[in-house]
Amino acid sequence: MKTSLTVLLLLVSFLFTEARTWTNSKGKKIKAEISSATDESVTLILKRNKKEYTFKRTDLSEADQEFITTWVKEKAEALEKNKEAMFKFGDTKLEPGKIHQITMTIDQSRYPEGSKFPSPTYTMGIAVPKGFDPINKTYTIIHITVAGKGQPSKALGQYKNLLDNADCILIAGDDVAYGSNLPTTSVYIAMDNKWDAKVKKWPIAFYGFSGGAKAAAYTMAQAASWDRNIIGAYMTGCNEDRTLDAMTRHKLKPKQKKAYKSAAIWLSSGATDKVATPAHHKRVLESMKNNKMKYVKINTFQGAHMIYKDDQVDALKWMKAQAR
């Protein structure tokens, strides 16, 4: 299957290359590593300050433009050759349509704080859809959250409707030290390492039930603090609004806070729920609106305190519509 040049250019980024001297059309020179490239632009990491800057390709010398074209082609060819490796996490090869619980080793080169934890491993829950093709397609990441010291990797099955009926990846990371962000960070890093920088642009939605619904507010704020592409949260059986506390705890910058407040919140409410009653959900909605959350809605279903599977896909479609 041939891949378009644009897709390859967008896909091939954040791959290591040595610093070289670049020259713009006015003859000014800089020492930098190439980070990523599109048809129109190139992003470079300057050697002197390690910061990224994006330039128009046409503003660079002909020799530089030729180098970019060759770099993209070589990295694309290497990616195609290593396609098989992109499906392997730890010792496990992903089977599309199947839910996996995988023991992963902390990548301390990218998460040095991991050395402080008692175990060098964590459990990652992950499932990719049938026909999964991370080179040519974009997917929505569904991040599953649970309460307290629970194991979200074991909760993925409750959201299999999304895996079967939407272009979604289900992920979760089990905590190894209560209150740490290590599993979340490590799961994102694991995906970034496998599927390159393209995955950093994939939209993320957070799904949780009861205490996990409240936890979704915090995990979404955490992802916002890392400038991931958050689009919303599905909170079912939620009797308390934690959005304000989540934004405060993760010290969101103005731009990050704006992204967080623009994320769409779907409150799934059981008509006979005695733990998170319809009245609770109404108060949660009002509180979120007072906290300037832009998009919040309640969907009431016939049922008690439970995960209602039939509105999960509709909730995601609604979140995507608000994101657009």
Ordered list of secondary-structure elements with their pairings:
Blueprint: H1 5-11, E1 20-23, E2 29-37, E3 41-46, E4 52-56, H2 62-81, E5 88-89, E6 92-93, E7 100-105, E8 121-127, E9 140-145, H3 160-165, E10 168-173, H4 182-195, E11 204-209, H5 211-225, E12 230-236, H6 243-249, H7 254-262, E13 264-270, H8 278-290, E14 295-301, H9 312-323
Parallel strand pairs: 9-10, 9-11, 11-12, 12-13, 13-14
Antiparallel strand pairs: 1-2, 2-3, 3-4, 5-6, 7-8, 8-10
Helix pairs in contact: 5-6, 5-7
Task: Give your account of this protein's structure.
By secondary structure, this protein is an alpha/beta fold. It has 2 domains: 5-81, Roll (SH3 type barrels); 87-323, Rossmann fold. Helix content is 32%, strand content 25%. The protein is built from 9 helices and 14 strands. The chain has helices spanning 5-11, 62-81, 160-165, 182-195, 211-225, 243-249, 254-262, 278-290, 312-323, and strands at 20-23, 29-37, 41-46, 52-56, 88-89, 92-93, 100-105, 121-127, 140-145, 168-173, 204-209, 230-236, 264-270, 295-301. The strands form 3 sheets. It has an 8-stranded mixed β-sheet, sandwiched between helices. Strands 1-2-3-4 form a 4-stranded antiparallel β-sheet. It has a two-stranded antiparallel sheet with strand order 5-6. Strand 5 and strand 6 (92-93) form a beta hairpin. Helix 5 runs parallel beside helix 6 (243-249) and helix 5 crosses helix 7. Mean pLDDT is 87; it is low at 1-16.
Q: Number of helical segments?
A: 9
Based on the structure given, which CATH architecture of the largest domain is correct?
A: 3-Layer(aba) Sandwich
Distance linking N and C termini:
30 Å
- E-strand count: 14
- The sequence of SSEs as H and E is HEEEEHEEEEEHEHEHEHHEHEH
Percent of residues in β-strands = 15-25%
Structure class? alpha/beta
Characterize the overall form.
globular
* Major beta-sheet overview: 8 strands, mixed
Q: Count the domains.
A: 2
- The CATH superfamily of the largest domain appears as Alpha/Beta hydrolase fold, catalytic domain
Mean pLDDT: 87
**Remind me, CATH topology of the largest domain?**
Rossmann fold
